[in-house]
Amino acid sequence: MASDGAQATFEANLERYAALLLQLGVNLQADQNLILNMSAAPVEELAPMMRLLTRQAYEMGARNVFPQWDDGEMARTRMLLAPEEALSDVQLWRIRWYEEESARGTAFLTLVGSDPDLFDGVATERLTTVRRANARASEQLMVATMKLAHPWSIGAVATQAWAHKVFPNLSADDALAALWDYIFKATRADQPDPLAAWREHLNRLNVHTDALNRLRFKRLRYRAPGTELTIDLPEGHLWEGGGSALAKERPVVPNIPTEEVFSLPQRDGVNGTVSATMPLNYNGVLIEGIRLTLEGGRITQYSATSGADALASIIETDDGSHYLGEVALVPHDSPVNRGSPVYNTLFDENAACHIAIGRAYPTCIEGGETMSQEELAARGVNFSDTHVDFMIGSAALDIDGETASGERVPVFRGGLWALA
Ligand code: ZN
Ligand code: ZN
After folding, report:
1. Is residue 245 part of a domain?
2. Phi, psi (rounded to 5 degrees) for 10
3. Ligand 2 center to 356 CA (angstroms)
4. Of the ligands numbered here, which is closest to the C-alpha atom of 352?
């Protein structure tokens, strides 16, 4: 921070950003509980934002704010040093308590800010053991989360290690300031009235979801360098975007930023080859040059130029992780897109078109939130313990939609919306 003026601007932006997460993100109500979570990031770097959110939440009339502290270095130490058999131990009490709070409609807000290389050098099997144990124990909570049974959202805090990864040529202070500037811009927190800017933005996203929901394409065709892919969309699929379609009276925006309009592929209806256009930061491991071949929906071949072990661990999670669970459209001129990755999925997935390996959102099928797992599966909805987005968008991406009668409609041209 160069001057008093810059410091004052920063603090004003931070106040607006925190308010945005609470008012727009989880839409916090009077007398509602708020659980403040943090990803494995330096506790001292996230603490100021945790405190700011706590103060603002109580000022908004929150009933109780429950902070859940975590620490990046301690998480890394456990990954490196804990006995092998202890890695599948989970804090069941915490998951049960989350389930109870979810059932009473508590808001969950998570702050991310991990070092993208946090788990560099940790054996992939150890990471997989921890992830699987947590996913199994949190099955019910994950279902509740994906159905938006409780309001939840994710925000970010710029941290030293993350900032250095994104801006390696800047000094530590300048890199941190640059990352905060990026976060404020990408989330519109730097605008005089962020909520008004967001209302306008969400309306624009709704224009796209409405058009797609009217057209009811039976298939999408992707063409780009290294990509020749068709994605069938199941009958009754719904496009979502611009906040939650579920919580009409009390809308929430689960990701801030959010630039995506998304739906789900037919589980067995994806064919061809697809290449990632950005590295994927997965649990502190960087996976670059992802390339998948799919036949009848199933990933039959996969490769990566680096982080291949981590990619294998994602795809080999279970049967469902051999299939896709999300198709998301994001224009190349998204304000989140800075031309290169920021090594955090919250931002990178809102910078480019992406698809996800693994579980589909049941809300993307008509009536899906009240269907049983068997009914959903019969409709072509994929299940898995995992859901991992990776970016396939670029200025060279064209997408066509194919209607039931076989007519082709341009949806994306040169990475931008071509549909009204
Ligand atoms: Zn997405
Ligand atoms: Zn996703």
Report:
1. no
2. -60, -45
3. 5
4. 1
Q: How many domains, in total, are found in the chain?
A: 2
State the ligand closest to the CA atom of 240.
Answer: 1
The number of the ligand nearest the C-alpha atom of 360 reads 2
For residue 357, the ligand closest to its alpha carbon is 2
265 CA to centre of ligand 2 in angstroms: 12
- Residue 260 CA to ligand 1 center (angstroms) comes to 6
Q: How is 143-186 classified by DSSP, letter by letter?
A: HHHHTTSS-EEEEE---HHHHHHH-TTS-HHHHHHHHHHHHHHH
One domain, residues 125 and 236: no
Tokens of 339: 């031309």
181 exposed, middle or buried (CB, 10 Å; 0-12, 13-18, 19+)? middle
Same structural domain for residues 148 and 232?
Answer: no
CATH number at residue 90: 3.40.1830.10
* Ligand 2 centroid to residue 10 C-alpha, Å: 30
The reply to whether 283 and 139 lie within a common domain is no
pLDDT confidence tier of residue 340, bands split at 50, 70 and 90? confident
Query: How sure is the predictor about 244, in pLDDT bands with cuts at 50, 70 and 90?
Result: low
CA 28 – CA 251 distance, rounded (Å): 10
Give the tens place of pLDDT for each residue, 32-66: 999 999 999 999 999 999 999 999 999 999 999 99
pTM of the model: 0.85
Q: 170: CA distance to ligand 1 center in Å?
A: 30
CA of 80 to the centre of ligand 1 (A): 31
31 CA from centroid of ligand 2 (Å): 31
Ligand nearest to the CA of 351: 1
| 288 lies in the same domain as 171 | no
Q: Which residues have their alpha-adjacent CB atom under 5 A from ion ligand 2?
A: 326, 356, 389
Q: Tell me, yes or no, whether 174 and 232 share the same domain.
A: no
168 and 220 assigned to the same domain: no
Q: Which ligand is nearest to the CA of 388?
A: 2
- Please give the residue range of the domain that contains residue 43: 4-186
- 302 and 222: one domain? yes
Judge if 181 and 221 occupy the same domain.
no
Ligand 1 centroid from CA 235, angstroms: 20
The string of DSSP letters for 40-91 reads SS-HHHHHHHHHHHHHHHHHTT-S-EEEE---HHHHHHHHHHS-GGGGG---
Residue 19's φ and ψ, nearest 5 degrees, are -65, -40
